[in-house]
Every structure is written in C-alpha cells, then in structure tokens.
C-alpha cells in the first residue's frame, strides 16, 4: 500500500504491522478533520476494515508526536496544489484536462469495482460458510465452571469474528454499489476552494457519493451531502464558507464548474459565476416529463439547499409556488438526513404523507437513485382506514371534494360545508378536549357485555363502576382499570357458567379433535405434576373407542376430565368476550361522538364552547344520519379517532423521527394536531402551496396566524418560501400566476416556450374534434406525457368517452384507484393530478359552466400548473371569469 511505503521510506518500522495497518485510517481521519468533512464512523467503516480502524486508534494512542506531525505533512503532500482560475468559457485545453481527469477517475473506479467484484459475487456463500463453520471453531465444554466460562468466551469470540466479517462484507457491498452508481457519471460539479490562511486551493469534485482513491487519502469525488460540498449550492465564485461540526470554514471560491457526463464521456462543461448554472438547469428542465420524479442533486438551488440541510427546526414549513421544487427538495432532504445521521437514523424512521397512492409511485425512485432506501410512504386516508375501516365505511378526501364541487344545488350543502370547516378547526379540537373532561364527571357511554342473549355485565354496572373510581384519575386510566375489572369478572362468570345446561349439551357433541385437544392438555398437566399413570395409553384407548363409534356419547371416566372439558367449552365461548374487553369494545365511542351533535345548548355545556357553527341543526342531522349507517364523513374521521384516543388512551408512534407532509395545505389544523400527537418524537417538514388549496378545510401554511406555526411555537419553527417556479415555461408561469390574487410574487425560470393556447369552439362536438387534433399534433411533436385535465370525475368520464368515440386511441382514464403513474395520454381530474406533471396539459372545459365560483379558482390554477411545456385550454361559449380577466397578451387565441 502506498502509504505504508511512504512511511517505511521515512523510517517507520515496517514490521510493526499493527501500526502501519492503522496508518491509512489515521491519515483519512486527518484529512476529514482538515477538510471539516463530516467524517462519521459510518463513512469511515465503509472505506476501511474494522481491524484497520481499531489499529488506527492503537496507533493514535501509541505513536509519537512526530508521527502525528508527519501525518499532517503527508496530508499536504497528498493535496494536489495545481489550481487555476478559469474563464467563463471552457477552452479546449481545459476541456482536455477535464476529460483526462474523468478518464483517470473512471479507470480508478473500474479497478476498484473489479477488485471488489469477486468478493461481492461470492458474498452470500462466504457468509453462509462462516455461519456453517461457526460451531466447528467453538469448543464447548460445560463440565466445570471454568470449562463453561471458557466455552462462553470462545463462543463470544467467534460471534464477534462473524459479525465483524458480516459488517465488513456489507460495507463492501455498499461501496461496490455506490461505485457502480458513480461509474457512468462520476461527478456533476466542482468547486476550487482556497481556505483562508492556506496558500493552496483544492479541487472538490462533487457527485452522488464519495469516492476515495486507492491510497485511501484523496477524495476523487465528494458526496454532495458533505459540508464542503454545500458551497457548490450556496455560493458563486468569490468569498464563501461552509459549516462544519467544528465551526465555520471561510475562504475563497476560485472556480465553480458543472459537468454533464454520459457513459464516462464529457458532454458539456459550464463555468458559472452566478447561481448554479442556468445552462444546465435549462437543459434539465427542457427535457420531457418522466413517469417518475428525478433527483435534482446536480442543480439544487440555494433556497432549496436551505430546506435540504435544515437540521435545527422541530417544524420546517415550506410554502412554495407550484413547480418550485418542494417535493424534490423534500426527497433530497430525506437523503441528506439519512447520510448525516447514518448511524442513528434509518429510512423506516421517516414517513412521507402523500396526497394519493399514485403519487407514492411517482416519487418512489428518487431515493434508490441516490443510493438510499425509500422512507415509509402513506396517505392520511390509509392511516384512518387502518384504525376505523373495520367499523365504518369511510368517505375519502376525493369523495368529499367531488361532493363539494358537484352538489352545490343539493339540500344541506351549506350545512355540510360549514361542518367541514368547523370539524377541521382548532376550535373543534379544543371542544373535544373539554368534552373529554366533562365525560370524566358524567355522560360516559358503555355497551353492556352480552352472552347468548343474556346481559352478563350491564351498561349501568359499568357506568357505576367507572364513576366509582377516583375522579382525579385520568379518563383513559379509569378505562384501563375498568377493563381489568371486566376481565376479572369474566373469569368468575366463566367459572359459574361451567354448570350451565348448554355446556352439558355441547359436551355430548364434542368432536374427535376437541377430545384430542382436551386430553393433550390433560396429559401436559399430569406430566407437569409428575403424575404416575400413563395417559398416552388411556388416550389411545379412548381415541380408538371414539373411532369405532363416533356417534356414541362418551362415557366420562373421571370427573376431572369432564370438568376440564366443561372449562374448555366455556373458555372457548368466552374468548371473544375477553378479546372485546381487551380491545375496549365496551366503550360506546359511536354514542359518545353522536352525543356531541345534539342541540346547541347541550353542546355548549359539554364542550365549554361559546359558539356553534352556522347551520348547526342541519349539520348535526347529517352527522348523526351518517353515523347511524356506520359511515363517517372524511371530516369526521380524524375527530372521531381523536375522541376515541382521548377516552381510550392515545396511540403514539415513538419510532418515527421525521414526518414529511406533502401538499400540506390540504390538511386541516385538526389533522396536523392529530399527527403531532401521533408522532411525538418526530420533527415535521410540511410542504405546500396555499395557492393550490382546493379543499375547504385547507390550512394557510405561512400566514402570520397560521395554526401550523402555533403547532410547535415560533421558536421551534422555520419558514422557507420558494417563489421561483421551475416546472413550466416562462409563458405558462406568466399565465398561471396571473390567475392568483398574489401571483405577482411568483418568478418564472427563464425557459421559453409557446404561450398557452385558448380555443373557443362553437359546440361540444367541435371542441372534442379540436382536442383530438391537438392531441395528435402534440404526440407528433414528441410529447409523450399528456393530460386532459377535468374538474371532476364525472367530467373525466364524459371526456374519456367523448375522446374515445371520436377515435382517440391509447387513452387512459385515471381514477382514485390508479396506483401507478405511467407515460402516455390520460384523462384525469384536477385533484388527482396534484403533485405530478405532464409535458402538455389540455384543460377540457374552461368555460363558466365548469369553473365559475371564486372557490374554484385554485383548482383551476392547480390544473394549469401541471404543464411543463404546453398548455391548451378549451371552452364553448364564454371563458371562465378568471380567464376572462387575464391580459390578452398572456395567451394565443385560436378559433
Ligand atoms: N433545482 C432543480 N433542478 C432541476 N429541476 C428542478 C429543480 N427544482 C425543481 N425542479 C423540477 O421542477 C419540477 C417541479 O418540482 P416539484 O414537483 O418538486 O415542485 P413542487 O413545488 O412540489 O410542485 P407542486 O406544488 O406544483 O406539486 C420537477 O420536474 C423538478 O424536477
């Protein structure tokens, strides 16, 4: 090894293997310190064998100061001092130098991969072999205490060897995988940095993971998540700095360069003096939409980097315009946190709440692309279904929005809307908390425990027992006491029940299996009591008899057997009662929730609230009707579960450390409070856009009085705003931002395209014909991800049928059941298109008959902002009011 050679040349004792084995690690640590790289043991162990690391510590402890000094000198020797400041344009010579370096890195990478390949290929066999040989290497002798101790230590030693081998194998596999990932495109960026006080400057090449040269000293590529790499995202050439655990390192960035590399060939090299090269971003954004989201590590923008690397706030709120990279930043943030805390944070300790299941598939490839495991992904609906789905038919958010959009004329509509808003509010949560306190004094509702049409324990008994407990004991704790009491009662009732007539009847009709089970149990019991008779023989005899004449009633030979069988029979029948008691089924939560929605005076009394929402009576009626059918509105599900937990005791998940909530504006303040309670040890990252708040219970994420800021308090909350929109062309952003009242603050990224095209047609038939023509043209132009976006599912069905009937082929209808996002042409309602994007978007009907209410403006905006390159809108008759209000220079009109 090169380092060992260096040391030997400098007079270090080559025979001291322990010392020299540790040397590369020590140098590595020195270099990490020197660069203030976040050199945690995870990174260290992925680059070295455990034995090398241990030896390094040995060396560090025992070697003399001059060796330590030498390590620093060596570090400098290994730092290539040849640097220069490049002009904006990369000239031919620089290009060649870059290609040469790329070749060198590629060759080194290939060699390192080839070296590890045989080991990795034979990995499974090796580990299996080690396991197989485990016991051969261990001598077990337990004759004396000393022998026993020796055996124990021999086993421990062998186990330690095994786990170290396994760990080092795992590290090798990981290293091998990350090198394979690097191979086609080892890096995407470079900064040349001269630290204040040092004369040399250093070239830092940045890629999706780190790659250290064979000498174990020189970083040929730095992981984009290392502190030093953060400069690439945060600064342009000039004064720059980066934060390390040991403090801030300041200096001058001499150069910032970007690369596009494909299959080890340089495609493009850009030098940049401003933000991260607009050229590269232009190219990336100019590409077609993908069926899966892509990583953005090469072009992360400064404000996105702040989101990714924020590691302080308990609550991080990101309010960002449509297409500003909120979801992208969130996913890179997951990768960053997994890297930074790799020793204590696992992917399954992070959960992403997505707007719908299709979105889960859309984002599922980003983390694996970065070499990280996916975090857990779910939707709030999935969670609610898990806990309430067996007792209720739950309305989902899409049914709710369909109702809101389509049932304006129906009776009780305003009351429902008022209910949706109220049940989403903090006021309702407060009301439920007060209600729980009230229940501590009166009003609890129980279900008597019934068995075979008899009431074993009555509701009254339960109630008086419950209110007999000390009233200072918390509600949930009193429920737990009651449960224990019920279980004890059931045990004594079970004993009494054994004499009942029905038990005798059942005894006469027991089948062979039940006998066998009973006698098996008896035999076990006798064995345990060391009984001196051979039950086997008896059992065989009895079994034989039974087989001979199954119809005969069994003649019980001993009273004990009969008792046991009686006990077994009753126990079996009581099992569901016990299970129900354990699951707290004796609490009538339905009744408790239902009881809330009575008259307004009672509500005020129970909840201490002074106000009831508008349309209270009608709202109560709707809620009760739904409950009586074992159904729950979407807006009732979280409150119902919350009340259940107030009474039964809260369920919490303390494993999860990071919660990501995408499309956060669609969650109610109530739901946020609920999630906070559910994950008490998690930090929250909420990403959303109030401009896309399409649900009536929406939360404004960034307003001064936002309930989200109150959730953890201002001191523990950071708010980041993203105003630059990357998804759509400048023309589309100019059009869509004009749809919003505060849209002027949205800044388009300078990527040009065609203005949105508005086609007003004489009738529906002509409109469909135009749509079909346009779809064909768009496909001819090479766009292969095209969405016809409608307001509702009913409109989607209508559009789908009409387009199909008109001869449009290869069309896909997206419903809430669709699980995967695929390339092609699709018809999709706007609320399901949230979060995803398409090359071209066609708004099926932008006339007032579809969009006319002010409340539909944001839905319309959400639909239009899904377009990356082309936006086309259609109408018959007039344009929707918010389109009419637009400046005509923002679009092209076709007739
Ligand atoms: N820094 C970046 N580099 C390259 N592409 C980017 C960058 N930021 C965002 N994008 C691209 O912009 C598009 C929109 O990003 P993303 O979906 O993350 O935005 P969003 O804010 O979540 O949007 P919405 O709220 O509309 O769903 C994606 O194609 C993404 O790859």
UniProtKB/TrEMBL annotation:
Keyword set, alphabetical order: ATP-binding, Helicase, Hydrolase, Nucleotide-binding
GO biological process terms held by the UniProt record: recombinational repair
Domain UvrD-like helicase ATP-binding intervals: 299-729
Gene Ontology MF annotations: 3'-5' DNA helicase activity; ATP binding; DNA binding; hydrolase activity
Record keyword ATP-binding present: yes
GO cellular component, one term: cytosol
Annotated SUPFAM superfamilies: P-loop containing nucleoside triphosphate hydrolases
Classification via InterPro entries: DExx_box_DNA_helicase_dom_sf (IPR013986), DNA_helicase_UvrD/REP (IPR000212), HelD_bacillota (IPR048228), P-loop_NTPase (IPR027417), UvrD-like_ATP-bd (IPR014016), UvrD-like_helicase_C (IPR027785)
Spans through the membrane: none
Source domain of life: Bacteria
Binding positions for ATP per the UniProt entry: 320-327
Pfam families for the chain: UvrD-helicase, UvrD_C_2
Protein name listed in UniProt: DNA helicase-2/ATP-dependent DNA helicase PcrA
Organism: Cohnella lupini
Lineage of the organism: Bacteria, Bacillati, Bacillota, Bacilli, Bacillales
